[in-house]
Amino acid sequence: MKNLFSPLKLRELELKNRIALSPMQQYSAMKGIPNNWHLVHLGSRAVGGAGLIITECTAVSEEGLNTLYDTGLWNNVQMEAWKPIVRFVKEQGSKIGVQLWHSGGKGSNTHPNEGMKPLPLEKGGWITKSASSTVINGITAHELTIEEIQKLKMDFVSAAKRALLAGFDTIELHAGHGYLFHQFYSSVVNKRSDQYGGTFENRIRFLIETVQEIRKVIPDTMPLLVRVSAVDYLESADAWNLKDSLALSLILKNNGVDLITASGGGFAHVDKSMVFPNYQLPYAMEIKEKIGIPVGAVGLITTSVQANDIIVQDRADLVVIAREHLRNPYFSINAALELNIPPEIPWQYHRAYSSIKPYS
């Protein structure tokens, strides 16, 4: 019977366990260049035993940033800076993926320590771009032209090519949380009347075409992942819902996507009463059951027993852990100990676990 520490194979990529570090923005880069903070942040979770390390959302163009402090992969300087991070993570026996993304109309913000407010143009801000000329976070976004959409697809392709050169094992597209892809597929934001707006098929077109273009340039052996917002958390009749996500997931699967992580929201405040352990797990379960594609589970997953139950009960294929990894970089080692499974401990740390045998 499979458990949290059973291997997971996606195409030819095999993860040593079912634990992933969730992408979390660190707001610690300059000019999109990752640095020692990112090496330690990602590397320590690899030392801690996570099977898959996923970078924070990494912009495919400068205007795709959320803040001036996000990482990027739109030039070779950034690519070279990712290489030692990728190499270190892989040396620990983990696999590493880059999450590619464009913030769209949610971009051009101050640092979180400065309130995450709209960044004025005179202080380095920029004109944001979205599916429609919509007010998002107090900023009116510029509606992307057809030509700009085509260029954006190529920005994603170029970033994917750089990801290969940097040594990443997999790529995830961030298509949720109110960012650019989500701004296209949600009719709450997308008010276009051309081939990228209106019908469901048109609204998902930008994402699907980007998936198709990336699939052309990455090896058949490399898995392609996508994170979606399964629901908008809006009461509007035209809000994106789980039925929409099921239809999208089938199309993603048929176009070469290998795993979908389903979370939610992006345009609305989530009331604290809605947040409880596994609160977003049902979305992943529904996609897994109805579409037959591997899924990643998120949503206040904080304990080893909770994470293990998700895998043992076949609710999801991968447990994608965010904030608990911030509190506990060695979550995977500790989870193995708590579940009475021999942990994989770096030899440098064996003396701290002298009663645990066999070592690996």
From TrEMBL:
Domain NADH:flavin oxidoreductase/NADH oxidase N-terminal residue range list: 4-335
InterPro entries named in the record: Aldolase_TIM, OxRdtase_FMN_N, YqjM-like
Any Pfam family: Oxidored_FMN
Cofactor: FMN
Entry keyword NADP: yes
Sorted UniProt keywords: Flavoprotein, FMN, NADP, Oxidoreductase
Protein name: 2,4-dienoyl-CoA reductase
One annotated GO molecular function: NADPH dehydrogenase activity
